[in-house]
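Module 6 notes. Inverse folding takes a fixed backbone as the condition and produces residue identities as the prediction. Think of it as a translation problem where the source language is geometry and the target language is the twenty amino acids. Below is one complete input and output pair. Work through it position by position during the lab.
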């Protein structure tokens, strides 16, 4: 046996020892069932149709040496797991829902999306503000102010009949504060980003990005004494029922 063949045999032995599982191979009408070790593989195919529907197909592959069966494999033979590892639980994740057809489905009002974000930050006293004031009197900023403001909306065509939409939202944190208070306010901005990331709000819309860059504006604080930080959010429509997930 040459060196390459010996190496292949060694790798095959290691593979069977580490990851192989016990399966039962049953020939079709030509022998008794045989229990053997097989390496179990998984292949997933996904195809998106023009109307936004996703077709998902999953196959299983069983790899083992032919000499382990005692018979030549043929069409119609069956393989069953003797021992199957339980599937690890998966966290629910948002997925972009099938595209909304223009003029066919009702569009979620922007005010409802913003209200959903504000509701998720109710303990921060968050309020929706479509027309925020740039220069507020100092006394109005003596306490922390958290406002939810629309930033952008983008519709991307998927086909001649369907499109998908992304909505941008900013969550601003403001307060006239001494330097000793700046670090705590910056932590508030970070906590808001962590809370909203991946969260489903407002009639099946989910936050797919929560960005804090910059975390706050030091020069603005030096000029005005007002801390100003912001979280930039990106939301998309999602299907909360995929894979058994939910909000």
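Target side of the pair, the amino acids:
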């Amino acid at each position: 046996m040459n060196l390459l063949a010996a190496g292949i045999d060694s790798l095959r032995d290691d593979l069977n020892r580490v990851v192989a599982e016990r399966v039962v191979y049953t020939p079709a009408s030509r022998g008794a069932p045989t229990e053997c070790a097989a390496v179990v593989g998984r292949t997933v195919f996904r195809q998106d149709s023009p109307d936004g529907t996703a077709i998902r197909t999953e196959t299983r592959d069983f790899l083992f040496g032919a000499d382990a069966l005692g018979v030549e494999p043929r069409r119609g033979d069956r393989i069953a797991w003797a021992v199957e590892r339980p599937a690890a639980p998966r966290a629910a994740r948002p997925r972009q829902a099938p595209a909304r057809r223009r003029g066919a489905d009702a569009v979620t009002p922007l005010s409802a999306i913003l209200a959903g974000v504000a509701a998720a930050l109710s303990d921060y006293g968050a309020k929706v503000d479509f027309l925020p004031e740039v220069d507020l009197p100092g006394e109005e900023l003596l306490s922390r102010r958290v406002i939810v403001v629309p930033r952008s909306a983008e519709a991307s065509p998927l086909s001649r009949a369907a499109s998908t939409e992304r909505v941008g939202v900013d969550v601003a944190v403001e307060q006239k504060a001494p330097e000793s208070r700046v670090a705590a306010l910056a932590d508030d901005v970070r906590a808001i980003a962590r809370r909203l990331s991946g969260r489903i709000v407002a009639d099946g819309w989910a936050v797919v990005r929560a960005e804090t860059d910059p975390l706050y504006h030091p020069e603005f604080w030096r000029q005005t004494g007002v801390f100003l930080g912001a979280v930039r959010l990106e939301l998309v429509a999602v299907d909360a029922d995929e894979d058994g997930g939910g909000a």
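Reference fact for the lab report: The radius of gyration is 28 Å.
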